[in-house]
Amino acid sequence: GGNGVALSGNVGMLSGLWSLTEPSSSTRAWHLAGGDSEVNTLGNYGTQNVGAASNWPGSRFQSAMWCDDTGALDGLVLFGGFGFGASGLAGELSDLWSFQSGVWAHTGGTTSTGSTAQYAVQFHADPGNWPGARHGATSWIDADGGMWLLGGSGYGSDVVSGSLNDLWTFSPGGWSWVGGVEITDAYGEYRHEPGFASTFNWPGSRSSSSVWVD
User: Fold this and answer.
1) Are strands 134-135 and 147-155 parallel, antiparallel or unpaired?
2) Strand 30-34 and strand 17-20: pairing?
């Protein structure tokens, strides 16, 4: 996906999935694995947790993505972004998808836009936990294969959208809310001098951050 130009020349949000031929191949080339050739297409969610060739995320940009090999979901994982659900106008999304063996499966989250977060149980994976709809969240895989998500622009526990600073991790048991606040546009907490870790420190709300694992 992303923002761009369709085959028709129309400009908007895209849903195409592409792969690049393996470097060992005699000819390196791009391959279109699926998606619509037009912009601003709706998603087809199918049956939850069941992969099918007819399933496809709607057009979107600034999603969070991981490659998961821990067994939590397996394969390529896509969360949220700004774009189209199953119907209606574009907005922030909270849907979770996995791509493996050439097909997409919708594994959780709503099929509509603008859903609020569910902060049921902190520090523990729980079916009642779910990040709110957002785009521009920062994501990464830790040294143990854990999937992490920080902030973005979207919805916390209220119906007012803004920048977020909540931190989440995903495991086979589901989402864990690790920290940050439930509301948007929160200030950062800089309780100690640079170089000193503290449980009282916390980044302020933000979108499209940079992240790396050392």
Assistant:
1) antiparallel
2) antiparallel
Tokens, residue 204:
């302020």
Spatial separation of the C-alpha atoms in residues 49 and 65, rounded to whole Å: 18
Q: pLDDT digit string (tens) for 41-89?
A: 999 999 999 999 999 999 999 999 998 776 677 789 999 999 999 999 9
For residue 55, the Cα-to-chain-centroid distance in whole angstroms is 17
C-alpha torsion 180→183→186→190, nearest 10 = -20
User: If DSSP codes are grouped into helix, strand and coil, which group holds residue 111?
Assistant: coil
Whole-prediction pTM value?
A: 0.92
Let me know: does 157 contact 117? Beta carbons within 8 Å: yes
Reported as a single tens digit per residue, the pLDDT across 163-201 is 999 999 998 889 999 999 999 999 999 887 788 888 889
DSSP label of 130: B
Closest CA to 58 of 118, 114, 108, 16: 16
